[in-house]
Amino acid sequence: MPAALRVARFADGARFFHALLAEDGLVREVEGDPAAGFGPPGPPHDPRGLAWLTPCVPSKIVCVGRNYAAHIAELRQDAPMEPLLFLKPPSALLPPGAAIVLPRESRRVDYEGELGIVIGRAARRVPEERALEHVLGYTCVNDVTARDLQEIDVQFTRSKGFDTFAPLGPCIAMGIEPERLVVETWVNGSRRQSAPVSRMIFGPARLISYISNVMTLLPGDVISTGTPEGVGPLCPGDEVSVVIEGIGRLTN
Ligand code: ZN
């Protein structure tokens, strides 16, 4: 495929399909999936009337904690010597446009805008210098977190794992270089986070290699690479968007 293609996934009634996003706002259906790759685009569709889905269906979402120095400082914690990993369950996935549910167990639910890496080729113990060969593309993730529960639990499973706590999308952007991307989060039209992903402590190649030494990364799996500074709470009715230019806008 040529560079900088953006593939989203839609439902038309009971039928699910991937489609290329075009600059004119139309979508063009493509055959394929993250494992097989995508075929040539078909005729244009008007996306109105289609339901947006998450652009892939990961077997697991591997998240990285404390990966930006300024975010570590705002949490008053120490920088890790190695990547700090945790998992979000696939049941937490939420497509673009759908509502995050603030659970009754928490009094403080935060947004965390993050760059997501989508795996295209299975990765098991891959060296860092070959790690990027396993990337299909990049997406936006909101690592929604029940901050109060995170502070009292030893593990992050509960605080990060509620249903709807893994908004993902709007698309997989392929053929882009992540180094120059900037992650932003907007709440009700005001910008709350903005940081170049180059400020990550552990970059994409290091993360893929490190994680693949623990667990096999499968096509469609997502690595959420950590959030920069500026995290904050969400209130009922808020509109939150994770925006990465070159990928798109994930609004919930
Ligand atoms: Zn996070």
Summarize, please.
By secondary structure, the protein is mostly beta strands. Helix content is 10%, strand content 38%.
Structure description:
This protein is 10% helix and 38% strand. The protein is built from 4 helices and 21 strands. The strands form 4 sheets. Strands 1, 2, 3, 6, 7, 8, 9, 10, 12, 13, 15 and 18 form a 12-stranded mixed sheet that branches. It is globular. Bound molecules: zinc ion. Zinc ion (ZN) binds next to loops.
Feature tags:
21 strands, 10% helix, four-stranded antiparallel β-sheet, binds zinc ion
Radius of gyration, rounded?
A: 17 Å
Largest sheet: 12 strands, mixed
Shape: globular
Summed over residues and divided by their number, the pLDDT gives a mean of: 95
Strand content: 35-45%
Find the structural class using helix and strand composition. mainly beta
Bound molecules: zinc ion
Order of helices and strands: EEEEEEEEHEEEEEEHHEEEHEEEE
**Termini separation (Å)?**
30 Å
What is the share of helical residues?
10-25%
Number of helices: 4
Number of E-type strands: 21
Low-confidence stretches: none
List the helices and strands and how they pair.
Elements: E1 5-12, E2 15-21, E3 27-30, E4 32-33, E5 37-38, E6 44-45, E7 51-53, E8 61-65, H1 69-74, E9 84-88, E10 93-94, E11 109-111, E12 113-119, E13 135-142, E14 145-146, H2 147-152, H3 157-161, E15 166-174, E16 182-187, E17 190-196, H4 204-212, E18 222-224, E19 232-233, E20 240-244, E21 248-251
Parallel strand pairs: 8-18, 10-15
Antiparallel strand pairs: 1-2, 1-7, 1-15, 2-3, 3-6, 4-5, 8-9, 11-14, 11-19, 12-13, 12-18, 13-15, 16-17, 16-20, 20-21
Zinc ion binds at residues 63, 112, 114, 143, 226-227.
